[in-house]
Amino acid sequence: MDFKSPDISNSLRQRTMRWRLIVIFATLIAFSPVVRHEFGGWDDEQNLTRNPQMNPPTLDAVARYWRAPNFDLYVPMTWTAWSALARAGYMANAPSPDAHLNPYIFHTANLALHATSALLAFELLRRLLGRDALVASAAGALVFAVHPVQVEAVAWVSGMKDVLAGALSLAAIILFLDSSRDAKTRWPTYLLAIVTFLVALLSKPSAVVVPAMVIVLDCLVRGSPLRKSIVRFAPVLVIALAWAIFSHFIQQAKHIDAVVWWQRPLIAADAITFYLAKIVWPLNLGVHYGRTPKYVLGDHGARWTFVVPCLLTFALIAWIIRKRGSEASRIALTGALLLVIGVSPVLGLLPFDFQEYSTVADHYLYLAMLGVAVLVAWIVRRTEWRTIVPIIITLLGVMTWRQARTWHDALSIAEQTVAVNPLPGVWNDRLTKLLLERANAQADQGDDASAIATYRRVIARDGKNSIAMSNLASVLASDGKLDGAIPLYEQALRIDPSLESARVGLERARSNTNPR
Predict the structure, then answer these.
(1) Same domain for 193 and 270?
(2) pTM of the entire predicted model
(3) Do 304 and 196 share a structural domain?
(4) Is residue 488 predicted with pLDDT exceeding 50?
C-alpha cells in the first residue's frame, strides 16, 4: 500500500485512531468493576493501609525506598507511584487508622496503566505485522488486555508492580525495535529505550526478560540475523543479567523447602502446563493455587505434568522442521518463546519466596501474554479463523468482567480463593476471620438478620469458633430468642471455659428465662 498518498495516509490515521479507541474502551469496560473496589487485604495491608510510611507518605519515606529494598524486593519506582497516589487521596480525618488511603485512586491508576499496556500492545503488533494490519493488531491487543488471567494484576492494588513494569516493558520493546528503523534517530531512540527499560526494572525485577523478548521479535519476526541482534542489544543483555543477579541476592527464598536441582525443571514444566491450561480455559481463577514444589512433586499426579510441555515442544519442533522456516512456523515459535520467556523468572528454576504458597500465580502472566497476542494477531491476519476471534474476545471480556467482581474486597477475594482451592490453609483461616469481622460489623449496625446468617457461616466453617457462637447467641438473645441463645452460650463455654462474654451472656439469658 502506498502510504505517501495524502488521502490514503489520512484514511489510515483515522482508522488507526478508531481502533486505538476501541482497544482502550473495551479494556476499560471489561475491567470497569474494579474502580469502585476496596483494598484487598492480601499484601495491600503491609504495603499500604497499615504501612506507617504511607500514613501519611513523606519524601523521606520515598527516599528510603530508593536507598534499600523493602520486603526483600527492590521496586522503588512502584513505591514512588504508590506514595504519590497515597498523597493525592490521603484522608486525614479517617474513621480508623487503616482507612486514610482512598482505594478508588489506586484501582483507577492500575486500570489506566493496563489500558496503556493494551494500547502499547496494539502499537507493537502494528510494527510487527504492518501498520495497516489494524484489525489483526487490535485483536491481539484485546486478547492481551481482556483475558481473565490479567484480572489479578489489574484488580489487585499491590499488582501495580506488574502493570507498571508491564507497560514500561512494552514501551521499551517498541523503542528497541524502533531504534533500528531510522539511522538519524537510532541512538536517541536506543538510549530512550534503555532508560525506559531501567525504569521498568525499578518497577519490578521481572522486566529482566525484555532484552530476550526483543531479540526473539527482532530475529523471528523482523528477520534480523541472530548474531547481529545479540550484538546490537548486548548492552541491554548485560544490564538484565546484572539486575537478575542483584535481585536474586536481595530476594532470597528463605521460607521454602529445598528442592534438588534436577527436580526444578519438573516444577517449571508443571508451571508451564498450568499456565497453558489457564490461558486456553480461564476458569477457577484465584490468588492461591497451592501448587508448591512439595505438592507438584508429591502424590498428586502433578509430577507427570512435565509430559505436556515436552510433547508440545517436540510437536512444535517437528512442525517447524516440516514447514522449513515458513511465516507460520516463525510466528508459532515467537509466541511460544515470548510466553515462556515472560514467565521464566518465576517458573521455579530458581527458588523464590512465593513458592511457599504456590509456584504459579495469574499476575506472573502479565507480560507473557504478549506471546498469545502475537499468535492471535497473526491468526486474524492470515487464516480463515478470523471470524471466530471476535466471539472469543467477547467471551473473554465477559469472563473478565465477572472475575473482576470477585476482587471487590478482602472477603470476596478470600471466598473466591477458597472456592478455587478448598484445601485447608492460610486462606481458609483468613476467610473464617473475615466472615467473623463481617458478622460483628453487621451486628454493630443493627442488621441482626444478616449478622445471624454470617455467624452461622463462620460456625459451619469452624465448629470450634467459640467467639462466633457467643456473638451469635448475643444477637439471638437481644432478639428474644433465648431458646436458641442458651445452647450456643453453653457450647462456647465447653470449647473455651474462660470466655467471659459467653459466661456473662449465659447468666443473663438464664435469668431472663427464669425470672425470680
Answers:
(1) yes
(2) 0.93
(3) yes
(4) yes
